[in-house]
Amino acid sequence: MLTLATTTPGEPEIFASLQGEGASVGRPSTFVRLSRCNLACHWCDTAYTWRFTGDNRPHTDDLAFPREDNQVKLNEAEVAARVAALAPDRLVLTGGEPLLQGAALARMVTALKALRPEFHVEIETNGSVAAPAALDPLIDQFNVSPKLAHSGNPASLALVPERLAAYAADPRAFFKFVIAEASDVAQVLDLVATHAIAPGRVYLMPEGRDSATLWSRARWMGDLCAANGFNFTDRLHIHLWGDTRGT
To answer: What is the rounded CA–CA span in Å between residue 17 and residue 91?
Structure first.
């Protein structure tokens, strides 16, 4: 079984849209949003995937979400069938942290490939968890977003050296860093140097849940990307649809 986030109570967050971030930005994609996360970013825009009633981990909004309204369980074959019924042949597994359910995802992707073998499969991960052996060869692209100090997560949980080294050595992996202040880039430079990550595989993305915030940060982030050979990525879905589920 897979535990998914919901768009409305009882309705799994499986939808077709455009990839809004990172190396595949703008591409038509089918999304499956998984529930649960091992980290707790205080600015997380999908806190409904992990900050359930009784969870006191800090978050800017200080909201707690009823688990029964924000989680739904489906078997892997049902998820695969729902994905296959949507037009885009690029699947983005997101969350939460999808790799917490890696074994079940392997079964789902295998079932999906039997229905539509042309699917390109991407997974969004915070970089602290490894893909299990059954899932790893089924993934075409890892979108790795290590969480910096400003996320509020302890480095011992968020920045696991052996995991970052493994992703850095994997040509399928692209790195996306969420940036709130110009000073955050110093930590990115340190991680890039420590793990020998090619700058061309690095994307800087402004933190923000509205267009005004994103644009204000984009102005100075563009200069930082150009100076360091990094890519810039916006949050396209925020500009198009706002901070809403199922987009």
So the answer is: 10
